[in-house]
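hey so i finally got around to running the thing on that chain from the lab meeting. sorry it took forever, my laptop kept dying and i had to restart like 3 times. anyway pasting the input first so we r on the same page abt which one it is
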Amino acid sequence: MKNHVLFLAALCLLSIGCSNTQTRTYTRWTPVYIPMDDFRAMVKSDSPRQLSNPGKIYVKGNYLFINEKEKGIHIIDNSNPSAPKNLAFITIPGNGDLAVKDNILYADSYIDFVALDITDVANIKVMKRINAIFPNNLVQHGVKMDTTKGMAIDWKEETVTEEYDESNPVIFNEWGGGRGGFFPTSADASSGGNTSSNGRGGSMARFTIYDKTLYAVSTSDMQIFAIDNPSNPLVWAKLNMGWDIETIFPYQDKLFIGSQSGMFIYDNKNQRNPVQLSRFNHARSCDPVVVQGDYAYVTLRAGSRCGGGQNQLDILDIKDVTKPVLLKSYAMQEPYGLGIDGPTLFICDGIAGLKVFNATDYKDLKVTSFLSTFRTYDIIPLGKNAIIVGPDGLYQYDYSNPSDMKLVSTIPIVK
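ok and heres what got predicted. didnt touch it at all, straight out
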């Protein structure tokens, strides 16, 4: 019997080759490239457009700035919060973050940094562009691309049928056979060095401004810009911070950095040379942070690119900023951004909605409101009204009475 099997195998190899070739049909996303010069010339004022895929939010005076992921920034006149007016859209391909000082808007455009004069929103002016200052942005935006071909500004879906040998499987394409996710990836400059000439971002921020310095964190470093002359930002320094850095939040003369493995605290008395004071380690997860008084509030979210298994709120004692201590954890559904205003703590809990707590006693948070009818991503509390953004649109709520939140207005998304 054994000899018979060997004979058949030999016959197969000699006569017909025993081919393992099969046909596979699959769908893949491939990048659409344009020359780099054309890509960099795309930043311009456009007519207002409806929200489709909102990301980061920023507030400056009576204006709201809403990032349209990878596409640009909506400018909203919010002088009457019950009837916000969509003024304009700034096309910025590859945009994920923003900050504003005086009448200058700063934004990323994939690997580049741009400073825009928005005095006339219908006719914005590019004051300065710093090319390739954010090399890690391609990773943090969840895309891979070959910049030698230009810049990939879009994707096209293709159906591919090809033969392959089971004994030597092919890699579908350089993108791994799929599109690759775009991940929502600016901090709340609500106190400390924030002046009236600067705006305020949400807790999911990667850009923030402290006095005359702009900080931009990427996956592994902090890029520092001197903005003494806001229209002419100067590259100042870059600090290596490790890996999986996500958010930045300034409070008084400190910078609080959220990463997927922990929270960093930096002394910022010398704003052009922040110095690390401490690090609090936690289980691997997505991690924004906000601070008020002696407490830091950190949300941990499992899944997605962050991995891990924790979905919770951590409250830390930071009286001694060199030795942060975990006080208590609270289970959550899928927490993203958060905000704190006095005793009122807001948690954007993803599909669970917005959870509002009285945080007077960290040992016993009291639920004051639970808005579960829409998905939430980030929030900016403004003393009376809160600006909330998520996959379902932008919402403004009056939280004068946290136990009876009043809807002020909504800007829905339109796919």
